[in-house]
Recover the amino acids of this structure.
């Protein structure tokens, strides 16, 4: 068991602020890292101390393992929390941390490696008895001989996906065999540049799909619990924008099977810490299939915290320290409904182009049922070097209808001045009859694009 007294937070923005708050609640000191551009950022001001780790561009700062480890050593940190994005699923950072005698607040490197290879993760899920969509073997640029044969076996349409990928990067749908090879080669190029691994695989595409995921916590000793499901179907280019819990499409029987599958996968891996098992839910048949497992805390974890009352980040820290979490499946309850809205510095009426600049005013009316996770405040600068996420607005209600109505009121009364954001786009989503009815397929934004981009 490792006592943790000081955590270096290897991230920036709202998740770094979020981790710092959980550290403070546990009586643990926090160390922020920042680029030269972020020295005045909110996450730096919230931490107990900080270190500048490099120039503005992420590859020279937040992705610089040597500088991060130097900061941890200089400040006497005995643990590292990677947050999400950047190096959150990097076995190199995890090995560097444990090799230096510090505690890695995340799963073991073999879990990160196994689940990070999406093709390998599919095979592991199958062995654990988790339903998996029909798919292919891995394809590299010098090994495409049976590409079309595999696509015919699976059945069109198919998705071309990077084996080492995530976040929807490079993912493309193919409806015509004649276009398959060109799409595969394009995806291999994106995979190589983004993940250092060009391998791709094919997976059956579900036309009427929902994206539903289960939050798990691996407790060690082959034990795991779930914190119910979230739906993340409102996406733009495979990037989530709105999440909610519970899913409006999951009944008690499907929930029982889905959460059982997620826990089984975690337990067969002897998983440690927070993870998310993602599924595609066929809206026509009610069947669900394994997509991937993310071996980190998710952007959307607050919706789960709002319905369960559990602090997922605090559980991560306790589990990493080898302390008994006190969690049991019977003791975890879901109450009410919650939705999360991602506020981005981007212009939805100009192809969602990023909008760097200074936030003159950032006002979201928080309260008893409204939580705002942000790494910005009045006067903060949104830099062009990083993800344009400004804040996450999480709203809770007794049921879905009350949550939607409360969220609509909160977003309508929010003010963000100085830069353009997707705030009006989020309001338009909530106003649609389809969203009100819970008809939230992954094709939602494409299906209602003209209504969502209405400026009236």
């Amino acid at each position: 068991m490792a006592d943790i007294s000081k955590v270096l937070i290897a991230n920036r923005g709202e998740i770094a602020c979020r981790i710092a708050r959980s550290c403070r609640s546990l009586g643990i000191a926090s160390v922020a890292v920042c680029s030269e551009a972020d020295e005045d950022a909110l996450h730096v001001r919230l931490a107990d101390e900080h270190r500048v780790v490099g120039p503005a561009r992420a590859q020279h700062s937040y992705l610089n393992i040597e500088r991060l480890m130097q900061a941890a050593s200089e400040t006497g940190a005995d643990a590292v929390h990677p947050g999400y994005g950047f190096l959150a699923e990097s076995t190199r950072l995890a090995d560097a941390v444990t090799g230096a005698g510090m505690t890695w607040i995340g799963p073991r490197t073999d879990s990160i490696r196994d689940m990070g290879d999406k093709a390998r993760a599919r095979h592991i899920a199958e062995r654990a008895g988790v339903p998996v969509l029909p798919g292919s073997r891995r394809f590299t640029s010098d090994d495409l001989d049976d590409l079309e044969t595999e696509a015919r076996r699976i059945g069109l349409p198919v998705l071309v996906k990077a084996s080492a990928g995530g976040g929807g990067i490079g993912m493309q749908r193919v409806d015509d065999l004649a276009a398959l090879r060109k799409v595969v080669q394009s995806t291999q190029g994106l995979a190589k540049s983004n993940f250092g691994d060009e391998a791709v695989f094919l997976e059956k595409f579900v036309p009427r799909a929902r994206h539903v995921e289960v939050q798990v916590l691996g407790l060690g000793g082959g034990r795991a619990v779930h914190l119910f499901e979230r739906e993340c179907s409102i996406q733009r280019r495979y990037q989530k924008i709105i999440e909610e819990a519970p899913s409006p499409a999951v009944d008690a029987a499907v929930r029982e099977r889905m959460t059982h599958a997620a826990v089984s996968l975690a337990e067969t891996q002897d998983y440690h810490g927070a993870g998310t098992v993602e599924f595609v839910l066929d809206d026509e048949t009610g069947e669900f299939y394994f997509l991937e497992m993310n071996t980190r805390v998710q952007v959307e974890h607050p919706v789960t915290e709002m319905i369960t009352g559990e602090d997922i980040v605090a559980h991560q820290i306790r589990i990493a320290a080898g302390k008994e979490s006190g969690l049991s499946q019977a003791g975890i309850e879901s109450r009410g409904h919650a939705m999360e809205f991602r506020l981005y510095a981007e212009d939805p009426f100009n192809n969602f182009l990023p909008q760097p600049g200074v936030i003159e005013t950032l006002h979201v009316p928080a309260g008893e049922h409204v939580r705002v996770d942000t790494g910005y405040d009045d006067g903060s600068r949104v830099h062009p070097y990083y993800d344009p996420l400004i804040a996450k607005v999480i709203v809770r209600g007794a049921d879905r209808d009350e949550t939607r109505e409360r969220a609509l009121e909160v977003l309508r009364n929010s003010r963000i001045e100085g830069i353009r954001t997707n705030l009006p786009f989020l309001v338009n989503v909530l106003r649609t009859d389809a969203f009100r009815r819970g008809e939230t397929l992954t094709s939602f934004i494409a299906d209602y694009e003209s209504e969502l981009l209405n400026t009236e």
